[in-house]
Structure formats: structure tokens, C-alpha cells
Design goal:
single chain, alpha/beta, 3 domains, six-stranded mixed beta sheet, 297 residues, 15 strands, 11% strand
Length: 297
């Protein structure tokens, strides 16, 4: 029985990189292979997401041979299959080998979706009950850890779709991080993060999304499908609170100065002496501008 195979290239989606013979061969994998063997389809998807999100990726061959995050992901799939089919020790051993070869530790029980990119990723730790949604990006030094010691419970976080976890961030606990959320570098997240929000600081504080958009999207910048390291243009919530207190204190001093001036005028009209104390603040001395500069723009 004859089998007809159509040729379908990997979509580039505007990604420009230097072509090579290996890239061309992989781009034109026959459709019958990708349909009959899902691993080829996932291979194409894994490579494409790296080419889209990492401008340093120059070719398919370079991605296949020089990206430890990709190698860790492939080894995890083998380990996870063993884990879910009762081969617990073999799954842990494959995970151990992957950690030794790539510097990325993913427990074989963790669930990882499609198009997940571990960028650089040295020192990443993903716990047993962690779940990573489709399209997530995780940078070096990230920990998806647990705070409970009870076996069989949900101890590690669940990341939604298209979440970015920046370098050094720690997400600790069995809660959810919503779709499109961003975790700032070195943040320690111990509570749920709403979809589209950004979490920064220790412990992490939440910058809510604006009009349904991610917090790193501003009117002055075009909407981008991916932002490296989850960079946000919004202020830290603590800075916003401090700036609010500074502005409020400045406003109160202004009102007090106006009151003393009014009392001074009234006492002068009634020829009454001593109504205004010598130490009354008739002029504003609160330096709100200097304090705002210290907090940072």
C-alpha cells in the first residue's frame, strides 16, 4: 500500500536566522512522519519556540546541539514516561543523569506542557508536583519548590500558559500562577499570582494587569508576544506606596502652612499679639522632590 507524504516546512513567524542544511532537512520533514510519530511534531515545536524567543539562536543545528534546556526537556519526557508507568527508580535515574549533564533538575513526576523553553537554566529545580503550562519560559536559578512535607499532596506550584519566570525567582507552594503572568528576577512568590499580573520583590508583591494586558505592556511600546526576563515598566508596589505617602505628607504640610498664614492675617487685623507661635511653619519645608528621587523614578 502506497503512502503519499506531503512536505510541510516549520513556520518561521518572522524569525530570521541563518539557514543550514540540517535546518532545511528538518523544516521539510514529511507530514506522514509528524502525523505517525508525535515526537517529530514536538521536536519541531521545541526548536521553533527557541528560535522565536532567543535572538542568539542562529540555526536549528545549533539549537539541537548547544541548548541544555532542550536536552533537559527531552530527557524529562523519558523520565516522566517511566515514572507514570511504574518505573519509579528508572525515572529518577534518568532525571539524575539529566541533572548531571545539563545542570537542570526536573523531578520525573513534574508535568510540563508544549513549547516550554528553559533559557540558560543552570540551577533550575522543578519539584515533583509542579505543573508548567504551554509556552512558559524559565530562566536560570529558578526554583519551583514546595513548603509542605506531606507526601501525596500538591506541594509545588502550577504555572499557567505563557508564564515567564525570571532569573533567580523562587515560587514556593502548591498554588497557581495565572496565564501570562510574570515573575521578576529574585522574587520569592508564596501566594497565587493573577493572570497577566507581575510579581516582584521579597516577599513578592503583585502589580496587577492593566485592561487585561500584562503589566509589562505600556502605551508607548507595541504589544509583544514575549518579553525576555519578564521585564516590566511599572513601578514596584512598595515604591508606589512610599511615593503616595510622600505626596500625602507634602500636601498636609502645604495645608498647615496655609492655616498658619490665615491665622496670622486674622491676628494682624484684630491687633492681637501672640496668636501665631514663634515656631509655626509659615513656609513649606517638606522636600518631596528629594524623597521621590531617593525612592527612584
Amino acid at each position: 500500500m502506497a503512502v503519499v507524504c506531503a512536505l510541510h516546512p516549520i513556520p518561521t513567524h518572522g524569525v530570521h536566522h541563518r539557514g543550514d542544511s540540517f535546518s532545511i532537512a528538518l523544516n521539510w520533514l514529511p507530514a506522514c512522519f509528524t502525523l505517525s510519530f508525535p515526537m517529530f511534531s514536538r521536536l519541531r515545536s521545541d526548536i521553533q519556540c527557541i528560535l522565536e524567543r532567543d535572538p542568539a539562536a542562529r540555526s536549528t543545528f545549533e539549537v539541537l546541539t548547544c541548548y541544555p534546556g532542550l536536552h533537559a526537556l527531552w530527557l524529562h519526557r523519558r523520565a516522566h514516561w517511566c515514572w507514570t508507568h511504574g518505573l519509579k527508580w528508572l525515572g529518577r535515574f534518568i532525571s539524575h543523569l539529566a541533572r548531571w549533564f545539563t545542570g537542570i533538575e526536573i523531578h520525573p513526576g513534574a508535568k510540563i506542557g508544549e513549547r516550554v523553553f528553559f533559557d540558560h537554566a543552570m540551577g533550575v529545580v522543578v519539584g515533583e508536583t509542579a505543573e508548567i503550562g504551554d509556552g512558559c519560559t524559565i530562566y536560570q536559578g529558578v526554583t519551583l519548590g514546595g513548603t509542605s512535607l506531606y507526601k501525596g499532596t500538591k506541594r509545588h506550584p502550577t504555572l499557567g500558559r505563557d508564564v515567564v519566570v525570571s532569573a533567580g525567582a523562587k515560587v514556593l507552594g502548591g498554588f497557581e500562577v495565572g496565564d501570562g503572568a510574570k515573575i521578576g528576577s529574585n522574587a520569592v512568590v508564596i501566594k497565587p499570582v493573577p493572570a497577566g499580573a507581575t510579581a516582584v520583590g521579597i516577599p513578592a508583591r503583585i502589580i496587577p494587569s492593566k485592561a487585561g494586558e500584562s503589566a509589562d505592556v505600556t502605551e508607548s511600546q507595541p504589544v509583544r508576544p514575549f518579553t525576555a526576563y519578564g521585564i516590566t515598566q511599572e513601578d514596584d508596589p512598595l515604591s508606589q506606596a512610599m511615593r503616595g505617602l510622600v505626596d500625602n505628607a507634602s500636601s498636609q504640610e502645604h495645608q498647615i502652612a496655609l492655616l498658619w498664614k490665615a491665622i496670622e492675617k486674622l491676628s494682624a487685623g484684630q491687633h492681637t499679639q501672640g496668636c501665631v507661635p514663634g515656631d509655626a511653619a509659615l513656609k513649606e519645608q517638606f522636600e518631596a522632590g528629594k524623597l521621590n528621587d531617593l525612592i527612584g523614578k
